[in-house]
Amino acid sequence: MVYFETVEEVVASLGRLARKVEYLTAAFAPDTRRAVEMANSKSGESVLGLGTSGGEVVASAKRSVRHGLCVGINCI
Question: Is the pLDDT of residue 11 over 80?
């Protein structure tokens, strides 16, 4: 399993593909924010994301639940 904490780490690891992910992240940002708002997750709760693609929603949810567990599963 690979964990990235910053966009810079993703770009360094994945190169050109990361730039596409960064573009899509910006394009879907309003939907990501709305999905996390609708979930109304609280600090300490757990989040399971299925079909997470680039993981934007799970990453955003992690900021909401702080010390809670967040897991994203995607089939490539």
Answer: no
